[in-house]
Fold Neuroendocrine convertase 2.
Amino acid sequence: EFYCTVKNVLDQEGFGRQKRGYRSIDEIYIKMTDPLFSKQWYLINTGQADGTPGLDLNVAEAWGLGYTGRGITIAIMDDGIDYLHPDLASNYNAEASFDFSSNDPYPYPRYTNDWFNSHGTRCAGEVSAAANNNICGVGVAYNSKVAGIRMLDQPFMTDIIEASSISHMPQVIDIYSASWGPTDDGKTVDGPRELTLQAMADGVNKGRGGKGSIYVWASGDGGSYDDCNCDGYASSMWTISINSAINDGRTALYDESCSSTLASTFSNGRKRNPEAGVATTDLYGNCTLRHSGTSAAAPEAAGVFALALEANPNLTWRDMQHLSVLTSKRNQLHDEVHQWRRNGVGLEFNHLFGYGVLDAGSMVKMAKEWKTVPERFHCVAGSLQDVHKIQSGGKLILTISTDSCHGKDNFVRYLEHVQAVVTVNGSRRGDLNINMTSPMGTKSILLSCRPRDDDAKVGFDKWPFMTTHTWGEDPRGTWVLEVGFQGDEPQRGALKEWTLMLHGTQSAPYIDQIVRNYQSKLAMSKKEELEEELDEAVERSLKSLLSKN
């Protein structure tokens, strides 16, 4: 007879999780026999489909250095993978795959007339489609292995299914790619539950032999009506949140913005050019030119990270975030509303694009020589627990002054992530706007208005708004929080808590170098400005003399 002890019993509630995809129907020479390769503008952009030449992931440089993802396994957590597809079969990792929707080892997509369950197969092709086989296109990391984790195709999501998926074979799987999340309807505030949070924490601490599982997340498709800081997966410190740009450098109309986005890759163009989408594998051995959404962006990032891991298998989950910050490029990304800015140490960022588009060539070169970042520390910088009223027509301005735990073991000198844990409610949650400014003067938009969010009861309860925009900064000094209402109708509310959490290191030699370079450039630009002013003054004097003569 066998006996076992049940430690805990949890009643699993059902909740919604949605796939992310926009559901509407010559300088570089690389020889590939794959028929769609020339259409994969996000790999090598020569101006296809009215795009901007040079606006791509710069994979050609990484491939040229010999990095193709060999030895790396990427898991696509989605609605399954057509692992019989001739462009995926040779790179399919059956050992690392599982179907948590049906509880079996065969994550094949369930058939529907509208091919709704093509999502995972399309994402898989972006990462690991084989090269030079005359089929479809080429994956970003075309020699990597891809695993299928089928977990999206059931009436409701549960915490156990999410946690099981995120923690599946963490010593075999290197990178987990997720192109889904809470409903992108502009009124949902949701994130991982208890078991999934624990699974993520275990993943970054214990996965890959202690180097940490790498979680790549699509930032969301709610467009300007939503804010990805209301998505607890995309805004988690343990995930790398990826937004998308289109083939001419603008944001897609469905792109959400938030201060937790780290970097960007590519999705379909705004113009109805049939070849402006993302070319990849499709169900039942087919190919497509129409994959889209931030769904398409996350797997591209996973592919770039696979190239970096091949260049340096010792990279930790934090190393990958640092490399993303340091090597992502502004390139030709632009937006009319959100301009590019520099933070206190000179790193250029954008509220929509994070630190820019991933650059595979730069990343593998830096990864190869990279030394693991120093130990990470956490400091509670301060907490305000009093009730502060908020009314339309004025802003609530609060400050926390901190020495960032100086003199203690958990002193933070160089920032990575910053969290503002906020409890606030209002007569209309969607009209709330929250900004936070660091002591070095970097302003992060923690929450934009969400015009479809009519909530008047729940508000935000100890919600961890996160920013990556102050990366590398010295957190010591005064932080400023601004909370107000925007919109035509008068609103009122109350902020009950603001706790400031600082996460980072006590040393970061490369940041010091960046600061020196930045200060040198500033000094040079000021010198040039003075010289220009002097030239103009001399010119004015000459003109004045000539007019008198």
In short: The longest strand covers residues 492-505. Residues 26-364 form a domain with the Rossmann fold fold (CATH 3.40.50.200). Residues 509-548 form the longest helix (40 residues). Helices lie at 59-64, 119-128, 159-166, 194-206, 294-311, 317-327, 360-369, 509-548.
